[in-house]
Amino acid sequence: HTTVASPDVVRHDFTATEVPISEVQIIDIPTILPTTTIQQSTPQMKVLPSMIDVTAPDSGVAWQAGEQYTIRWASSDLDGPVKINLIQAQRGTDGVVSYLTLPVVASTENDGVYEYLVPERMGFHSTYFTCEVSSLDGQTKDQSQAYFDVYTEPIDMTCKIVDLKQSKHSEFYVFYCSEQKWLEFDVWVRNDGTQRQIDFVTVSVILIKEPEELVMLQEEWGLSSINSQLWYSTPEPRKFDIEGHDWTVGYIDEYVDIESGAYRVEIEVNLDNRLGENPVLLDNNKYVCRFEIR
To answer: CA-to-CA distance for 244 and 249, rounded, in angstroms?
Structure first.
């Protein structure tokens, strides 16, 4: 019979310490994980994208054909050249607005200024333009703040004489009589060119005797507020006195006497182009009408 000795039993007594719930729910991860020190920018710093700000042209301006104008812009964080376009808004009959693009320059230095010579007859309507400056890829761009006008056709005046006639008026009394003859006609003018309103145009009217080429009568006057593609006439017909006689007892007053023969009336508007200096303009700003005075 063998007896196995029982192992010694070691006893330890301990008391659990109560921990507040708020403390066991908060775990400070950096204190239990390896940490690495990282430098970061301060919260006040921001990374801004590249930017363009078009400052000219501004609203209320109007560009004229054949004139040079300055396009201005400012940019930040944009490297390389820019391109410039004119953008026109057009509203269709269905009310939908579409945008047409007219290239100004495909590539130019990003130096904030560009001189633009407005072409003539580029086929656009005159209103609702903005100027757009953009990066070559079109990702960064800006347009002028408000619409402006671009008049791309020059002033191109035409004129004509309408209802040319000779008129006569006589008065007879017991001791007095009067007789007057005059040349009467209407002058019509129209602007076939620029879309803008013309503030003032000069009209020259000359009566010439043929074949001597003698200038018998001449006058100049003006018309204002001429819109495009509309005929305008003077409020009253133009009159050139041809002949006038006043008789009293024993006295005759002859104050105008243009002899019979061949004559012509020439009217001319927009005298600045009388020799056709601008090749784009039609040389029809002069009208000649021939007639006989009997």
So the answer is: 17
